[in-house]
Amino acid sequence: MRHRLDIQIGPVAFRIGSAWKAPLDALGRLYAAYPKPADGLADFTVRLEPEKPWRRWLRPSVAIKGDYILPDAAPLALAHGLLAAEMGMNLQMALGQKNYLLLHAATVEKDGRVLIMTGESGAGKSTLAALLGERGWRLMGDEFGLLDMDTGALMPFPRAVSLKNGAIRVMEAEVGADRFGPRLEDTPKGAIRHMRPNDRAIAGMGQGGMPSLLLFPRFGPAEAVRGVGKAEIFMRLTQASTNYVSLGRRGFDALARLVETVPALAIDYPDTDTAVGLVEAFWRERAA
Amino acid sequence: MNGGLLVRALRDPASLGPDTDWSGLVSAARAEQLAGTLAMRMAGCDVPPRVAAIFASARRDAAYARTQALWEAEMARRALADLDVPVVLLKGTAFYAADLDACAGRSVGDLDILVPRADIERVEQALLAAGWERLKPADGYDDQYYRQWMHEIAPLIHRTRDRMIDVHHTILPLTARPTPDAESLIADSVELESGLRILAPADIIVHAAAHLIADGDLAGGLRNLWDIDRLLRQFAAADPAFWTTLEERAVRHQLRGAVRRAVRLSHQLYATPVPDGWRAWRPADALFRARLLARNAWGQERRKLLRFAFYVRSHWLRMPPLMLARHLWTKARRGRQPG
After folding, report:
1. Which domain holds residue B316?
2. Does the beta-carbon distance from A42 to B53 stay under 8 Å?
3. What is the pLDDT of residues B98-125, one digit of tens each?
4. Which residues 221-240 of chain B have a CB within 8 Å of chain A?
5. Which residues in B lie closer than 8 A to residue A99 (C-beta atoms)?
């Protein structure tokens, strides 16, 4: 490939190749503070390549390829090349990562213990995690929680936070402009802007922690809190995991252990300040 | 070309030094569906820690592939048990079921079975009754095409397990020029403990060669050729008369050219030990080798023109020209008219 960028995020090393310079320039700026893989090797390779040879120049169209691919993935416009690179990295994790049980969840850490927030897309877990990451917590990741199946610890995967639509303004009010990527309009998911986690999150990306509280946040309805039974927690987590089935018994045991040992609550919140207040209150209660 | 590095790693894992392009090797192996096989081959070799972790993970994936393949076979066995029809496992599932050397680290996609052509409708009905569903609408063009011209019925997919089954009645499309002797494939098959069957050793090679050389466009060919290498080594070691039997079976199934070529390529790329008489050099072998190795250190396909030539060849092998024209015409019209 003509252009190449290597990035280490948490325990995972990526090699990203591109037929165009621009997407990797944007990616390089966003990930400037991240280390290169110390061994120069990659766990996963992502490729951004023209959908057809002539689409390098003519109405450029970025196909997301790599070690693992979705055969029917739609290509993106070159202006959305940064998003293509991010989606390519996520895809490798979702389809190829088998060293950890992968939870589609945001994770933050305080006092060495980890809060897991999981829910469907649009539940607001990315925004909530990003906000907590600026307010005394360490952001571990907004997309994937990596559960170590031997120790039960969660490992960080602090890639750039993908903010969508309304969440962009919330974080722009909180964080300096130097930590944002370009605003991408009219992507398949609406407006998207990537935000680099702060120095503390990047410096601590080798440091995992034991899970201590599990929340199922949901943005929209009026404030409400309810308990969740263990069977329901287990089922929701299997649905939130991309690799649970293929890990077999190891995955089952690790997930069962998580459900047995970590308390869980479902919270509805009408605005992010309410959510942060609820999280802090439950955390104090849990710590007491 | 990293196809070459991948082949060298499989052939002689100890030959890889510390300056190996490990990321390129891993990407090429993943692209060729050979990651698990490579991981098994390189178990115990001195590799960087990150690569060791990738290989450990690939070996676990292969263990899961084995469980899943054998379970699918068992599900099919149960669904067809009352029909009193011989069910012959093909390809990867057969290798796992009989624990052949070719199964080490192998990935398995669909479940492939061979049954007598006279029983195919009963088999299909029994599978439909047991939870498999049609992917293509019954009596549509694709379904009819399969029924009339192919060596298998249109694939079925299981409603809850999401796994596909390909039900074959012979090993090449009916439109292909060679006509394998499907009756003798089944008559000479070997029964396993479960009651399921696998092809006789020489027929396993004939089928693998037919699939690689006489049917498709060589996509995934390095993996299929690796199967052939492992199988040849194992069968030849177990039976001194194996090569003679293989020659007889290849002639019987009208696939002598394909089998000979597959054996030569296996010898040339994977250093399979073969008798002197099987090595005679053919100029076109170089094209096959180039096609098999056409992948770079990013896992990308290379040599687009050569790939396209083999793609055209695969259609040429399958269909007489007039039929090919009619087929493409129908497909093109359907592509333009929604529904």
Report:
1. 2-336
2. no
3. 999 999 999 999 999 999 999 999 999 9
4. none
5. 53, 56-57
**What residues have CB less than 8 Å from B92, skipping those under 6 apart?**
B65, B69, B103, B106, B107, B108, B109
- Do residue B23 and residue A45 have CB atoms under 8 angstroms apart? yes
- Over chain A, what HEC string results? CCEEEEEEECCEEEEEEECCCHHHHHHHHHCCCCCCCCCCCCCEEEEEEECCHHHHCCCCEEEEEECCCCCCCCCEEHHHHHHHHHHHHHHHHHHHCCCCEEEEEEEEEECCEEEEEECCCCCCHHHHHHHHHHCCCEEEECCEEEECCCCCCEECCCCCEEEECHHHHHHHCCCCHHHEEEEEEEECCEEEEEECCCHHHHHCCCCCEEEEEEEEEEECCCCEEEECCHHHHHHHHHHHECCCHHHHHHHHHHHHHHHHHCCEEEEEECCHHHHHHHHHHHHHHHHC
The per-residue pLDDT for range B34-48, each reduced to its tens digit, is 999 999 999 999 999
Q: Do A68 and B30 touch (CB under 8 A)?
A: yes
CATH number for B89: 3.30.460.40
> What ipTM score was computed for the predicted complex, to two decimals?
0.93
- Could you tell me the pTM of the whole model? 0.93
Query: Domains along chain A?
Result: 3-96 (no CATH), 101-287 (3.40.50)
Inter-chain touch A67–B299, beta carbons under 8 Å: yes
